[in-house]
């Protein structure tokens, strides 16, 4: 087998990858990678309706990783794998809305909370093909825009760079 996955804390012992500050950047980069995968898929010249069974879970995972990255950055005790927070982005947003302004804005926006709830359902049911769906492009755009907003806010808070325009800024971290 040529595929071999080794957790960073095992591959590079004493590297600090088990600290929330380091984990935070890994989560954020993974979130942006999921966003890029979503964008590549959504830009396919020909695709069938079944693509939505993948697009929506990709958007959910994008948001989940970015949300967990932001919380990991501000809260050293946050455990992104904690059972109560497994794929439960709405709960994380509610629990940290008083500490992260972007989460407060999401929590107080009924349309964005409804989107978060539907993306959680997409993660639970669509990825196994256990549901039907209706979806409008505007909702996909709202999820993508929300992911970009979170990535930009995270960038401003941490200096971590994701998008090409971040690399032209002085003092930004890779």
Describe this structure in words.
This protein has 174 residues and is mostly helical. It has a single domain (17-163), classed as Four Helix Bundle (Hemerythrin (Met), subunit A), CATH 1.20.120. The protein contains seven helices and no strands. It has helices at 8-11, 20-42, 52-74, 89-96, 101-107, 110-125, 137-158. The protein is globular, with a radius of gyration of 17 Å. 29% of the residues are buried.
What's the gist of this structure?
Helices cover 59% and strands 0% of the residues. By secondary structure, the protein is mostly helical.
Give the integer mean of the pLDDT values.
Answer: 87
Q: Which quaternary structure do these chains form?
A: single chain
How many structural domains does the protein architecture include?
Answer: 1
CATH class category? Mainly Alpha
Which keywords apply here?
mainly alpha; Four Helix Bundle (Hemerythrin (Met), subunit A)
